[in-house]
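cache lookup: miss for this entity combination. No prior model stored, computing from scratch. Input as submitted by user K.M.:
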Amino acid sequence: MQNDKKQLVTMEDVAQAAGVSRMTVSRALRDEGLVTEETRKRILAVVEKMNYVPDQMAGSLSTKRSGFIATLVPSINNVHYGKMVQALTDQLESTGLQILLGHTDYSQQREELLVESLLKRRPEAIALPFDGHSKRTVTLLKNAQIPVVQLWEVPAKPIDYTIGFSNEKVSRSMTEELIGLGYKNIAFLCETNDEWTRGSARRAGFKHAMENAGLSAHRMIRFGTPPMTIKDGHFVGSNLHQYYDDIDCVFCVSDAPAFGVISGLKQSGINVPDDIGVAGFGDFEVSRYTDPTISTVKFDAAEVGRLAADLIVKLIDPTQAKQPTSKRLKITVTNCMRESTRQL
Amino acid sequence: MQNDKKQLVTMEDVAQAAGVSRMTVSRALRDEGLVTEETRKRILAVVEKMNYVPDQMAGSLSTKRSGFIATLVPSINNVHYGKMVQALTDQLESTGLQILLGHTDYSQQREELLVESLLKRRPEAIALPFDGHSKRTVTLLKNAQIPVVQLWEVPAKPIDYTIGFSNEKVSRSMTEELIGLGYKNIAFLCETNDEWTRGSARRAGFKHAMENAGLSAHRMIRFGTPPMTIKDGHFVGSNLHQYYDDIDCVFCVSDAPAFGVISGLKQSGINVPDDIGVAGFGDFEVSRYTDPTISTVKFDAAEVGRLAADLIVKLIDPTQAKQPTSKRLKITVTNCMRESTRQL
DNA sequence: TTGTAGGCGTTATCAC
DNA sequence: GTGATAACGCCTACAA
């Protein structure tokens, strides 16, 4: 059963064992119908017996179709990106396409390196988050001659296709919602060095909403590096008065720090929402079950993966010359107000 | 700058443009030193100008080294596996090895399909969780002629290398710890259909510890499908008396349901730990900051990834004929007792 | 329905 | 130090 060391079974081995040529084996394994049912059976039996596993790299070299879809995320260790990748993979599965995954760690330099190394595998399309790209990254992407799908944020000048929403806009909307509740001295909590993350767009949205309402947006608390954790939020919550002493609400760049802020405040004897309101971003599952439940900006990360998969499948379908109608796909985002904020 | 449609730049194109042969280009791009500094510079300039990106598939076909490490996880959308994959990827990065990722969704059938499709890419090693494999999966793995690393659980009959810990043992240890606190009517909360997950080993550990202490292990609450969520736990917590009315402690298969159980109990007016104790498994970050903080079984998922990466790098190093000393790597697991349980 | 020849883009090997 | 030639394992194209 186990074959000789050192050498994997090739199609030629199977062909010889079955008494046919390589091509017949190749056909029997792919194009249903071009081979006599009898020989096909014989071949499949040999394949089974010899435990032959085709070498897809060799096949791809011939067909010029790698079967890979390159996918980048800022971090794998994050619910949203995990969900997105899982949805993308699942949606792609029936097509035989495989994901080639990389994480940028929120670094443009890493992104550039990653894009280059992924392109060496000749992916048929690439989906990656847009938080600004290096010049070389853009050049590489444009020269790859494959569909490029930028995710999450909508770039001012898209390379090709985009799926996501305007973080500036939804952040502005949530801020307006908080202002509508009566909050005036709202602080925004985000990371330091968030320039190349969606955090900066959310920060901008907060600022615009505050200024439009004639309020001051100076209560900007910046702490830690992306991605902000519960621990980071907890520290800030435990020392909130150190930052600004008149805060009536904290809008956090993500639900993780929001959860931490609440636990930090609670530990300091400050009640949410009675004393201070707290809002997050991303609707983590925990936000629906903690006490108080957390007001947050809600969207379905899996939807991004599904849309990306569907789009890509259409784009690389050789029989389908038409381009999909829309190059700008949007996903639904809503403000989800819960117990951590209240009408003043 | 952008080159003609349809056709990617090949090494031959670069060679012609630089006035040398393909081999010289190939050398200039890889073996530092076999090429005159002058020609190398000229070649690199052309590469830059033409935006040449080597085709690694073609290279791999020649060298018989794909540069891929196949990695399976039950689910990408899970902190532990996310951390593991991220650590593995990071640790592998300097070697140029790339991860080929797949998720089994806790299904042996999916695992089998996945293993087969990943092996077509000729990975140089494969790391996958052990929760039992189908017969064919084992055959495929054994015939692949690459190092196989089974993760998380330690199989009775390992295929090759293993990294992890005995879930039965650590679950037993936590149960003993709970018994030591004075809990007697402990319930174990896990999924239905957990036969092929580590949940079943944890269940067994709980049972053994209870029986060894002369206590009854019949309070077995099974709900939902793997992986258990906060929501699942919340439902069970909200209806705990429906299951057994004399429970004094709930040991959950993961921190997610533990968090949910606590929130469900709280909502029903039952206090943790005053009325009932709750313990989890996995030490999620939220467990350290919620109120009450959650007692849990703690281990470092990233460590699994790092160990796997180091092991694999050694195993596939062509210059290193020696096998690593140990085929059984263990990771540290501890009981981490916090506020959700108390001394009775 | 099956087989033969040639090529996919790269690297190993052996000349020069 | 550089180049010609022959693989690598499969598939396309064409012939039988």
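stored under new cache key. The radius of gyration of chain B is 26 Å.
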